[in-house]
Inverse folding.
């Protein structure tokens, strides 16, 4: 029990930025869904079982057009293809999480991924429970926010324009933290370059999958030099302390 | 509602399954009890850096540099975040400050 409490206490501060972001994005989702005739019960249902920010917004469109489950399925795979990357990065970290693993996989949103790959539990805190609480706290914020949006909907009247920038800010800060933690900036620059290049070529609605392919190709071609430099970093030799 | 309740439930179920698939597939392909191929382990080491960079661009994908306000609100807010984060290294301050600045910019300056 104490093990879990420690992990919870360690996890909570890391989730605060996500709480802020999810609160507003989730409420906006609940409001939109309510306006299309789906009351807050539907918002809760979707945030419990789907739990994917951008996909739930797409779902509103799918729910308000002709019934086409196959189209909905393909759309989901395309919109969420970027999640494949997250799993690949967390194979090791999730490998010892036992029964918590299916839920950790289920809850792997953009925001949870960005926290999980940046945050390390303090010494003595169990990594599995630490990651579990980050994930479940994030999802609870999302569920509560979506429900609140559906219930309070029209009552919210202050100007929230621009509040969604909180997610961009979160990712920028994590990007910077990663940058400062590494001597070798090639992986970050490859991600940045490939994304910008494919965005310019394919446009905002279609660039993610080409970006992922380009990133994978570049990493494959540069494996030798990149791997050599990364191993130096990951396993510091005594000399590196000089 | 355009769809009936059962139709809506089916659409939601399909989206839930599709989403879980994209998140679970790497773990299904490379289970913990089997040795992960060295190439995949290498990818797992380098991808996080590229993936966060991709997410930043994903968030900014609808910003146009060719039409007013030429991405200025985003550019200014990000520059502010980088500056204040390098200075104070306080995550909540950087994220909160950057977001408030951005909101002020799009609500009052670049309207």
């Amino acid at each position: 029990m104490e093990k879990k409490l420690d992990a919870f206490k360690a996890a909570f501060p890391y989730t605060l930025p996500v709480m802020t972001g999810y609160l507003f994005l989730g409420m906006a989702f609940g409001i939109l869904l309510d306006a299309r005739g789906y009351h807050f019960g539907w918002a809760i249902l979707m945030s419990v079982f789907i739990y994917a920010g951008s996909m739930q917004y797409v779902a509103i469109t799918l729910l308000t057009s002709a019934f086409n489950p196959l189209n909905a399925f393909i759309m989901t795979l395309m919109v969420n293809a970027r999640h494949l990357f997250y799993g690949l990065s967390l194979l090791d970290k999730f490998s010892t999480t036992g029964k918590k693993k299916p839920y950790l996989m289920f809850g792997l949103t953009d925001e949870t991924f960005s926290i999980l790959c940046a945050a390390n539990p303090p010494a003595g805190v169990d990594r599995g429970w630490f990651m579990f609480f980050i994930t479940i706290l994030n999802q609870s914020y999302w569920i509560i926010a979506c429900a609140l949006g559906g219930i309070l909907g029209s009552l919210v009247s202050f100007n929230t324009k621009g509040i969604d920038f909180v997610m961009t800010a979160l990712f920028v800060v994590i990007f910077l933290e990663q940058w400062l933690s590494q001597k070798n900036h090639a992986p970050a620059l490859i991600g940045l370059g490939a994304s910008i290049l494919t965005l310019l070529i394919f446009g905002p609605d279609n660039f993610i999958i080409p970006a992922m392919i380009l990133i994978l190709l570049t990493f494959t071609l540069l494996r030798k030099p990149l791997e050599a430099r990364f191993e130096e970093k990951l396993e510091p030799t005594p000399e590196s302390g000089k | 509602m355009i769809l009936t309740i059962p139709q809506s439930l089916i659409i939601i179920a399909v989206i839930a399954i599709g989403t879980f698939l994209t998140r679970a597939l790497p773990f299904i392909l490379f289970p913990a009890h089997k040795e992960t191929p060295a190439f995949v382990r290498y990818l797992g080491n380098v991808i996080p850096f590229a993936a966060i960079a991709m997410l930043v661009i994903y968030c900014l994908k609808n910003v146009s540099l060719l039409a007013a306000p030429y991405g200025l609100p985003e550019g200014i807010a990000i520059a502010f975040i980088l500056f204040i984060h390098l200075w104070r290294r306080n995550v909540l301050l950087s994220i909160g400050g950057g977001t408030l600045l951005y909101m002020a910019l799009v609500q009052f300056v670049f309207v």
